[in-house]
Specification:
This protein has a single domain, classed as 3-Layer(aba) Sandwich (Rossmann fold), CATH 3.40.50.150. It starts with about 20 loop residues before the first helix and ends with a strand. The chain contains eight helices and eight strands; from the N terminus they run H-H-E-H-E-H-E-E-H-E-H-H-E-H-E-E. The chain is α/β, with parallel strands linked by helices. Strands 1, 2, 3, 4, 5, 6, 7 and 8 form an eight-stranded mixed β-sheet that branches.
Length: about 240
């Protein structure tokens, strides 16, 4: 069994607490997300391509909720090397893992890692690209509009916001089927029924998805003029919005 295989919910937990991105999760996060998110590698490749297309000289590229740095590493392969990266996360354990991965990769571009809670707002400066990859869904709904507006305000003209989210179906009658297909995906990746159930309970009050249309409305209300879906798999979607 791989050393960093996700077994966070493998043993019976009497009462699962709310999901937290602590050191235990940080240690297995890369395995967790690759086994839990359909086409995660392809999402990352697409984010890298989109970032490279829209990143501008003399600007910044932000990864908001950068976790262990997988998106930063992927964008580093595509984006012009003199454009600085800024990674923000509210978990010091995640940022520690991210810093180690970046160092191990020998990344030479300027990269700043900052600890901040997006629920409390964020300061964005001179951004041509900002990424929210499976991040906005963890921000309390009451704070999402303020966050998206702050990102918009800190972006240069023609800047791009890349948003990947778990979503609800537009018609609720599809939700049950989509969730069933999703759990089938997790079973194919060797998660047990207990692991699936306990993680679902732990995430219940933490991960709050919107419909795709609600996310588009959120982006348009913040001022983004162009919005396009670039990825869709049942209850996961990727959007790009241009200022």
């Amino acid at each position: 069994m791989p050393e960093n295989m996700d077994q966070v919910f493998k043993e019976t937990i009497a009462k699962p607490s709310d999901f937290k991105f602590n050191s235990k999760v940080a240690g297995v996060f890369d395995d967790m997300v690759n086994r839990s998110v359909p086409y995660y590698g392809e999402m990352q490749r697409m984010i890298g391509e989109l970032a490279a297309t829209h990143a501008l000289p003399d600007s910044n590229v932000y990864d908001l909720g950068c976790s262990t740095g997988s998106t930063l590493i992927r964008m580093n392969e595509n984006v012009q090397e003199d454009i600085p990266f800024i990674g923000i996360d509210n978990s010091s354990d995640m940022l520690e893992k991210c810093r180690k991965k970046l160092n191990d990769m020998g990344i030479r571009r300027p990269v700043k890692l900052e600890i901040a809670d997006l629920d409390n707002g964020v300061t964005i400066n001179n951004a041509s690209v900002a990424v929210l990859c499976l991040t906005l869904q963890f921000v309390r709904p009451i704070n999402r509009e303020r966050l998206i507006k702050a990102i918009y305000s800190g972006m240069v003209d023609k800047g791009a916001l890349i948003l990947v989210e778990k979503i609800l179906a537009e018609d609720s009658s599809f939700n049950r089927d989509f969730i069933r297909y999703y759990y089938d995906y997790k079973r194919r990746n060797d998660y047990s029924e207990m692991e699936i159930s306990q993680k679902r309970e732990a995430l219940e009050n933490v991960l709050i998805p919107y419909k795709l249309s609600e996310n588009i409305t959120l982006l348009r209300n913040a001022g983004f003029s162009h919005c396009e879906v670039f990825f869709k798999w049942y209850n996961f979607s990727g959007l790009i919005a241009i200022k």
